[in-house]
Amino acid sequence: RNRQIVVQRTTADDRSRYGGFLYGMVGRERLIVGGFTTSEGFNIGERLFLRMAIGAQVVGFVSQVMESSEEFGPCYFLEFSTEVETLNLRKNDRISVFFPAEVQTQPEASDPQPLRAMVLNLSRGGCCLRNKTGLDPETGIKLSFTLPGEDHSYQLEGTVLRTRMDDAVFTGAVRFERTPQFPHVIGAVERW
Prior knowledge:
By secondary structure, the protein is mainly beta. Helices cover 5% and strands 56% of the residues. The longest helix has 10 residues, at 182-191.
């Protein structure tokens, strides 16, 4: 699968950024890139700073153009760098968890029966949950759960940001609302 990238020349006099694609690798030594938003191209030996998003991180490294090819449109073979820098784009670190929860839509749907879900990860900003009944994006929810080994039940309110279906199971991203009980609940989860 092609991955979108941004490259920038390392020379101080050119701060332009060019969008393009990482097409793949040749062995473990070279990257194949192309499809750039500039028609002027890059020269063999030229050093480039390459950035791409992988999940919630931006990965960046300096590389050098080793060769070019016009066979499939202008593409370039870059030296594979062993010095890679990453930047985490998440505002809040996620805690990997796996515990059951009940989800009630807000306002309560005509069927007051809560949905059963599994919470897969949790952060100060939200959570990822999995269930067999999809929830529409922008749906307000109340998430109720008990932490394993504890008796106290916790509730958090949130909004579904997005969902996807994998093998008849829905995975949804939820952003928490900052309610008065929010700090207490998140503190309990962090201590757990």
